[in-house]
Target: Spore germination protein
Amino acid sequence: MNRYFFYNFILVSFINLMLYVPHILMADRYRGAVQSLIIGAVIGTILLYLYTSALARYPGKGLPEILKMHLPKWISHILISFFRFMWLYATSLAIIAFAIMINRFFNPDVHVSLILAMLVLASGYAATRSSLTVMFVIEIGLIVNAPIILFVLFKAGSNPHLNWDAIRVIANYVTKAPTLASTAAASFIFTGYINMSLFNRLMPSNSRFRHRWIYPLMGFVILLITFFVPIGIHGTEIVGNYIYIWSITADSLLMQYGFIERVLFLFLIVYLNLTLVFTMSGWHQAMEFVKSMMSNHKPEIDSEKTPLSNRRGSVRFRAPVSGEPSLQ
Model:
């Protein structure tokens, strides 16, 4: 079950390429962004170890149950409301940003509101499933899309036009003190552990968070690629002119084989999948936090009742009783 933690950490690590994290870091590239990469990694690692160590003491329980065990009801409701708003706002920001990207790069003729409505309907429907189902969707989404993202990162890092002199110029600003915005942006990539606030319910009693040292190392490597590769491709000055810097970076890459020539199309399709998965996960957590504030609510990992939307057309099987013929 330790893979659940791995999936959530990798999901947040990959989704930062599409959000505004690279743009914030590029804006401060001369004002301490390099040092913020180091400080953000240290802060993220410390918080990761502290948070997972605390959750490991309560296997099978989510954050709402833990807060109700140790805090007064009104304090726990305030904290739960904060987590609800945090996930609702963060994932809504992601799906809005991607709707704008689809409008700009895929189909400018379609109004962005229509694109956003379609994404909201898909994510909202998936978010109403059980926690176990949501985790399985995250697992399938990463298994399908993670290799393609790693391929795009490798394609960008191995680009023969990558200017290492530009990377060294920016790296020399490591002595500049970081800003609060760049430090917060750099530490975002390590925040996948916060998803375990709810999905810790899926952890069995004998589970442990193993090999935690891998996650900060992996996150720091992805963070370095996120920051330095666009600088090497676009240059030290031009890189600050783009908001969706990795979409432009993917658009500058070509594949000389296969039926997809521009990497941008592959990049956006993959991130469409990840955005829907990320939004589904965040909205599901927000809904579960709201449910936990109800006095008669009992958390459940997987719903025993089939949702009404899945009943129509379904066939139910039951074990044959004695005397009845069985299906062969």
